[in-house]
Amino acid sequence: MASSSATPPSTSSSEAASPSVVATPDGSSGAILRSRPKQLVNDPARTGFDPETKWWMNYFKILSNQMTPEGRFHYREWRYKVHEERDCKRCEEHKDWLFTYSPVVRFLSEKIHDLDGKLDRSNVHCRRCPSILEEDGTVNRQAGGFDPNHGILICANEMRDRKHMEDTVAHEMVHAWDHLRWKMDWVGDKDLKHAACTEVSLRSLL
Ligand SMILES: [Zn+2]
What we know:
- The protein is mainly alpha-helical.
- The chain has helices spanning 44-47, 55-63, 69-82, 84-101, 103-114, 162-182, 191-205; strands spanning 124-127, 132-133, 139-140, 144-147, 151-155.
- α4 crosses α5 and α5 packs parallel to α6.
- The protein starts with 43 loop residues before the first helix and ends with a helix.
- Residues 1-25, 27-34 and 194-206 have low confidence and may be disordered.
- The structure holds zinc ion (ZN).
- One of its GO terms (biological process) is mitochondrial proton-transporting ATP synthase complex assembly.
């Protein structure tokens, strides 16, 4: 995920402390480097979703099939905004629990520490991540991402429950471990190498 007002951790920190390699978030790897696809903007007349009316009116339209799939996409993003605070609070609670009790998260945290890295609750960030709906109907969603300079991003609005969050955090921590272990270059067309190496690393690690 590239830009967008609400979510990204600030991008101004120095790179002196950690090796600087540019990473891309999961779910949109590589897309950042290409020109951004055109996004569909909601039109109530076309989609049946109208942010100016009550949420239950919109919900009723979904239930009675008066809203297009595009309208349902915009509706969902709209509700995520309303629930942003609640979602982030829950994400923070899960995070505390995971770093205290989750065997896999604690294990990976130690492995990263062994490589002189640091991933703990201070650099796992809970944020709302807007999805992108492209003109051709493709929906780009992401659960999380890893960036060597900022740590891990967890998309609070996409987390179904604590187990899902545990899987997501662990997945991103493996990327962090990978990064420290191999100092891999994840930019652009080297993404395939990233994926392949991750497979290997996962096996050698677990
Ligand atoms: Zn990944």
